[in-house]
Write a structure and sequence with these properties.
Length: 511
């Protein structure tokens, strides 16, 4: 039970109320006070007769204007509002005390640590987070906000650490601890892409090379028509960024642009994500097509879409109509479809993995994005752009590139294309000292030879061991992005049993 007492500011008023509660043998669970003339109390529930007797007694206290029951205390509302906010944040958030022990953390943080809450509370954060001493930082005479790179279980994260100060009675500030926010490189990349999307159309794309300028000229024309567009090219060439630019330069730019990745969904989830669903209570959850009505929808990795999903998508492309899952109603949506594919769709058709009639619909107009190694004139401008962006985001001052770094940037093969360049610059900026030039060592690029792939000079062992090491590496990278071992097996052209055995042999799991 909770009471709100409206009262005047009088010395001894709270004492008089507490004496009444003591006579009724009521133990307080909590008490809040407000400078606006309110006193809040929480205690065990009372029956109607006891409450009817208690409230008039409190109202008779000098200075009390009114008293009423309320559903929750202000502190409870603040607590659960904060808890809800933390729970929904995609980034890992920790609160630590002045000795760097974890006092609060959200679900995303627990996922990063792969631990249960009771296992980490009151433990030093550096038990899991390496690369920055929170205890040494909090013990400094002046504790300032920090942005730096850390690692958890061998994975890199960007950390923003903000000190928490509380005022004391003398008006000074007392260090109570800190709030720590961790972002993965993928999250930083998502935010980076969101910022890029604010720049209109193709102006956000860096194209100094003649080849990329020709591609953009072609895409400008495609932006003005509503025919489905197929974007092809190697991984990391920027197909999603280009799709956003096509939408921003089109007549649909005032409407929504959305991305659906077929690699991240499978089975019935494909149909629900694209077309929506009517649940058992008759409530409709809109799918991507309805959400993008009037706008553009990028269906990424269309080659991963199931044959059933391909059939329903084809029906929509032919008629402009579709049905939500478990729904008999015919719905319409005016959406410009853009597609990307990692696999050669012609070869997939030959293997009966992609419908030929859908292919002709998807491939009405197409554009292949060139790999970064063929865009030599764009490499340094792109790198400079990423340096400027991450310097601002990480609150760093990078002093350009060293001479040897510029040479490496231009000579490296960039098998991961623009995405690899962006991640390399992020690592370099986060590791560099303020006002220092970025060197090639800070890029931490793996050795790569065209036609041979990544090389490792430190490897020791037999060829069979090297093959197993490479095989395990591929499975570790691919397995988390596939919803089932069957889908992974289909992608790699192997049987489900063979994939399951290899995952077991290499002790690979999604967690």
């Amino acid at each position: 039970m909770r009471l709100e007492v409206t009262c005047q500011d009088r010395v001894g008023l709270a004492k008089d109320i507490l004496e009444i509660l003591e006579k009724y043998e009521i133990n307080l669970k909590g008490i809040d006070a407000s400078s606006l003339g309110y006193l809040y109390m929480q205690f065990a529930d009372l029956n109607f007769d006891a409450l009817s007797e208690l409230l008039p007694r409190i109202r008779k206290v000098s200075g009390v204007l009114d008293v009423r029951t309320i559903p929750f205390m202000p502190s409870e509302r603040e607590h659960y509002a904060l808890k809800t906010l933390l729970k929904t944040l995609p980034d890992a958030v920790f609160a630590i005390d002045a000795k760097s022990r974890i006092s609060i953390l959200n679900d995303s943080a627990l996922n990063v640590l792969a631990m249960a809450e009771h296992e980490v509370l009151d433990e030093p954060i550096n038990h899991w987070v390496q690369g920055f001493s929170f205890g040494r930082w909090l013990s400094q005479s002046e504790v300032l906000p920090q942005a730096t790179r850390v690692s958890v279980a061998g994975l890199d994260y960007l950390v923003e650490a903000l000190p928490v100060y509380l005022p004391n009675e003398e008006g000074d500030s007392i260090l109570a601890g800190a709030v720590v926010v961790m972002k993965s490189p993928e999250r930083v990349g998502q935010q980076f892409n969101a910022l890029q999307a604010q720049v209109a159309g193709f102006e956000k794309l860096i194209a100094h090379s003649e080849l990329m300028q020709q591609v953009i000229d072609q895409l400008r024309k495609f932006a003005q028509i509503d025919a489905p567009l197929l974007l092809t090219g190697e991984t990391g060439t920027g197909k999603e960024v280009v799709a956003q630019a096509v939408h921003d330069a089109s007549l649909r730019k005032e409407h929504k642009f959305k991305v659906v990745s077929c690699a991240a969904i499978s089975g019935m989830e494909e149909l629900k994500t694209l077309f929506g669903e009517v649940d058992s209570q008759g409530k409709l959850t809109h799918g991507a097509l309805s959400q993008c009505d009037g706008g553009s929808l990028l269906i990424s990795q269309i080659d991963e879409l199931s044959l059933e999903g391909q059939g329903q998508l084809l029906a929509y492309m032919q008629t402009g109509e579709f049905q939500a899952v478990n729904d008999s109603s015919i719905r319409k949506a005016d959406v410009r479809l853009i597609f990307t594919a990692k696999t050669d769709l012609d070869k997939l058709i030959d293997a009966n993995g992609f419908r030929k009639d859908l292919y002709y619909r998807v491939n009405q107009v197409s554009c292949e994005l060139p790999p970064l190694r063929l865009r030599q004139q764009d490499i340094v401008p792109l790198a400079e752009y990423f340096v400027n962006h991450y310097s601002k985001q990480l609150n760093k001052r990078a002093n350009g590139f060293s001479k040897d770094c510029l040479q490496v940037l231009q000579e490296y093969a960039w098998p991961g294309n623009v995405r690899q360049l962006k991640n390399a610059i992020f690592r370099a900026v986060s590791s560099a000292n303020d006002n220092a030039s970025i060197t090639s060592e800070l890029l931490k690029l793996p050795q790569y030879a065209r036609g041979y792939g990544y090389l490792d000079n430190d490897f020791e062992g037999t060829l069979d061991e090297a093959v197993k090491q490479f095989e395990a590496s591929i499975l570790k990278r691919l397995y988390p992005s596939h919803n089932s071992t069957r889908k992974l097996a289909k992608k790699l052209g192997m049987s489900h049993t063979a994939i399951a055995n290899k995952l077991r042999e290499y002790q690979i799991n999604k967690g």
